[in-house]
Design brief:
The protein is an alpha/beta fold. It is built from 13 helices and nine strands. The structure holds nicotinamide-adenine-dinucleotide. Nicotinamide-adenine-dinucleotide binds next to helix 4 and helix 11.
């Protein structure tokens, strides 16, 4: 069994690290938050006093941090200096493609093997060990990371060279954000046209308008399978995180010279939803903003 340093024990890492411990690995955990660290220890991990201490003698380093700047900082200030060169470095955070590639280049120049391995699936999947990992890096890096990722997920897919995991993640989430916004406005329109929403769901889910956003994650309460819509849009995938991913996608599109008007529109809609206070709601809750925005302004009502 491997000695694994796990850095970043928030909503996601706090679920993932215990699954490595459950699989029999020795997990040395570190987070800036004492509470997060305490919870990890309660779930079978050992507390380290610093990221560097966690990395000492480790076979693998796993990071699950908020954004690119945290990842670059942790690798530059602790991991590269403290981890053995034989350790596989695995960043599971969702970050910008440019930083992912840069940190992986720095790792390689320092004699390390590193992969980017962002996840699909939320907090429940992190706890349940059912995440999907999209991995960018060399074939050797992928093979070294695979058994560790398999202890935390149900699917581990090699997406391509360094940065490809992040690229796949943000392309997937740009598509998800755009199809969810389109699904929401479609159901609002269907209602305004007098259609029964369950009947429209039955038709569209068997017709060419079908999408995951509708049939697996319907934003309308009481229609389709049980989703966050049936729980007041609580839980699920926070709109603020969808906005983060759409911003990453737009930055990547700009750098790659790709024309992404639908992604841009989705980013604008989610920005407005977050500005209106919807950031902690599930991302399908944007239907409330789309629905409300159809009301005629006060001035026009009387
Ligand atoms: P979070 O904010 O809950 O957790 C991040 C943790 O990192 C915090 O506990 C924080 O204290 C810790 N941290 C920050 N800087 C640190 C440092 N220098 N050293 C040690 N610890 C440090 O975030 P999260 O929801 O767990 O998300 C983590 C990543 O996973 C993000 O990139 C996010 O976009 C991605 N993600 C989240 C979800 C989700 O549903 N929450 C789903 C898929 C992907």
């Amino acid at each position: 069994m491997a000695k694994i340093a796990f850095i970043g024990l928030g909503h996601m890492g706090g679920g993932m690290a215990p699954n490595l411990a459950k699989a029999g690995h020795e997990v040395r955990a570190f987070d800036l938050s004492e509470d997060a660290l305490k919870r990890a220890v309660e779930h079978g991990c050992t507390a380290a006093r610093s990221a560097a201490e966690a990395c000492k003698d480790a076979d693998a380093i796993v990071t699950m941090l908020p954004a690119g700047k945290h990842v670059a900082d942790v690798y530059r200030s602790a991991v590269f200096a403290a981890a053995p060169k034989s350790a596989i470095l695995i960043d599971c955070s969702t970050i910008d493609v440019a930083t992912a590639k840069l940190v992986e280049e720095e790792a390689q120049a320092d004699g390390f093997t590193m992969v980017d391995a962002p996840v699909s699936g939320g907090i429940a999947a992190a706890q349940g060990g059912t995440l999907t990992f999209m991995v960018g890096g060399s074939a050797e890096g992928f093979e070294q990371a695979r058994p560790i990722l398999e202890a935390m997920g149900k699917a581990v897919i090699h997406a391509g060279a360094a940065g490809s995991g992040q690229a796949a993640k943000i392309c997937n989430n740009m598509l998800l954000g755009a199809t969810m916004a389109a699904t929401c406005e479609t159901f609002v329109l269907a209602g305004k046209l007098g259609l029964d929403l369950q009947t429209f769901y039955d038709i569209a889910s068997k017709a060419s308008g079908q999408s995951w956003s509708m049939t697996s994650y319907c934003p309308v309460p009481g229609v389709g399978p049980e989703t966050p819509a049936d729980r007041g849009y609580e839980g699920g995938f926070a709109a603020a995180l969808m906005l983060k991913d759409l911003k990453l996608a737009m930055a990547a599109a700009m750098e790659a010279g790709a024309y992404t008007p639908m992604g841009g529109e989705a980013e604008e809609l989610y920005q407005r939803f977050v500005d209106l206070g919807g950031g902690t709601k599930d991302f399908s809750g944007i239907i409330k903003m789309i629905d409300d925005s159809w009301k005629p302004p006060e001035d026009d009502q009387g």
